[in-house]
Amino acid sequence: MERTMTDRILQPHQARTRTPTTYEDLLGDAIERAYAAGVHDLTGLVEALNRDGITSPSGQLWTEAIYREEIAALGR
């Protein structure tokens, strides 16, 4: 079977334009821990971040609105 450029799978790390910051690494690790613990909803994720002591960029506790805004900003 002949492969073409469209057959390739994009790995998330290939799309990076820069190295993640320490904050981004810590946030990602906390999100992964929550998923591994069986948390699969936004309310539970926000609770897990607050329980783990991971504060939002503004230093406030996470809310669903703050989480949505931050993840959208990180995705740009």
Structure overview:
The protein has helices at residues 22-36, 42-51, 64-74. With 76 residues, it is mainly α. It has a domain at 40-76. Helix 1 (22-36) crosses helix 2. The chain starts with 21 loop residues before the first helix and ends with a helix. The model has no long low-confidence stretch (mean pLDDT 88). InterPro entries: HTH_62. Pfam families: HTH_62 (PF20552). Residues 5-75 form the Recombinase-like domain. This is Recombinase-like helix-turn-helix domain-containing protein.
Keywords:
single chain; 76 residues; mainly alpha; 3 helices; HTH_62; Recombinase-like helix-turn-helix domain-containing protein
